[in-house]
Amino acid sequence: xxxxxxxxxxxxxxxxxxxxxxxxxxxxxxxxxxxxxxxxxxxxxxxxxxxxxxxxxxxxxxxxxxxxxxxxxxxxxxxxxxxxxxxxxxxxxxxxxxxxxxxxxxxxxxxxxxxxxxxxxxxxxxxxxxxxxxxxxxxxx
Length: 141
Known about the structure:
Layout: H1 2-21, H2 30-52, E1 57-62, E2 73-80, E3 90-97, E4 102-107, E5 110-117, H3 124-139
Antiparallel strand pairs: 1-2, 2-3, 3-4, 4-5
Helix pairs in contact: 2-3
């Protein structure tokens, strides 16, 4: 029994030491890291898309923090431009960052799609999905 107790004590000590070794640089605030990824990849891609499709499709971006969200997120809306404001029908999408660092895009009636990880700074997967969503909005589907 004493060997077991010693092993448990060594495990506890190792965890305490490991927590102490995490420097401020390694333990960067998750929220700050996720927000930076959302700004650098998602918001930048959305602004580029908004400029590219300005004549036919509208892209609205909402970067205000969601009150009930435990992780950073960005909402955006895509809709085809029509004659009056009453005719505007679009979809609202939410880009969520999970605690694992995985990023997904979801919307009511749509299965969430993975678009990357905050450790990866490339925007290829998000941009590809965004292009599909814009094409769907342009078609009116």
